[in-house]
Amino acid sequence: MKLKAFVKKALNWGSPDKYVRKLHEKKAYLDAYAAHTDTRVAEGDYQRAIGGSWDEMGKLQFDFLVKKGLKPEHSMLDIGCGTLRGGRHFIKYLNSGNYTGFDISEKAIERGRRVLQEEGLANKNPRLFVTKEKNLKFHELGGKKFDFILAQSVLTHLPPEPIEECFEYIGKVMNEGGVFYFTYFQAERYRHFSIEDFEYPFSHFESLGKQFGFVINNCSSEYPHPIGQKMAEVKKRDAKL
User: Which of 116, 124, 119, 198 is nearest to 164 (CA)?
Assistant: First the structure.
């Protein structure tokens, strides 16, 4: 380990909460979150940096979407794709060029591109990019639309404002009959329960769905997440099913 990295680890990682709080005191929330993820990936453990359970969670995401109808010919957007814990499964399965993933962490995307090389998936031509705008307006997609959209362990780390923004704009990147799946931590009421974790009642998403023209379904019984994240399905209210 380089001296600078060793010193940073010695000073900060003995008290990770202190380190993360300092980031959030100095930066806007998403800038701080990106910097925190960059640091974790740079420390070398790219699997734990995006939540761990690398094999279990990657396969869980993949099996769930296939059960929900994902086919190789479908296009997919992976919001907060990280280091491709799930992405590598989708890229292997989907037809060439049908996977797009983005993240706010530059280091996570760099490591994800290495995963593509290591697993022989670069020839599937996925699009991976770092979102410079750090928002959920999806302008950087250039008008492209998708059949399946996934946000695994993304809304779990977001306060209400960017979640509302997501619901406002997600319909613009959904194909006719497209579907958006996301995980969340469920509670009876909204709670910011740790520095980078949030809980919401399902009714919060139902309200946003009603506001922006979606039907929200609870799919949690079909998604046995190891630490209890719930899964929701979002479809346009007027979609042809």
Answer: 198
Residue with tokens 């042809």: 240
Say how far apart CA 185 and CA 194 lie, in whole Å: 12
**Domain boundaries along the sequence of the chain:** 3-48, 53-236
3-state secondary structure of 111: helix
In CATH, the architecture of 53-236 is 3-Layer(aba) Sandwich (3.40)
Distance CA(29)–CA(161), nearest Å, equals 11
What is the tens place of the pLDDT at every residue in 28-46? 999 999 999 998 888 877 6
pLDDT digits (tens, 9 = 90+) for 119-145: 999 999 999 999 999 999 999 999 999
Give long-range contacts, CB 8 A cutoff, 24+ apart: 158-163: 158/198, 159/29, 159/192, 159/198, 160/190, 160/204, 162/30, 162/135, 162/136, 163/200, 163/208
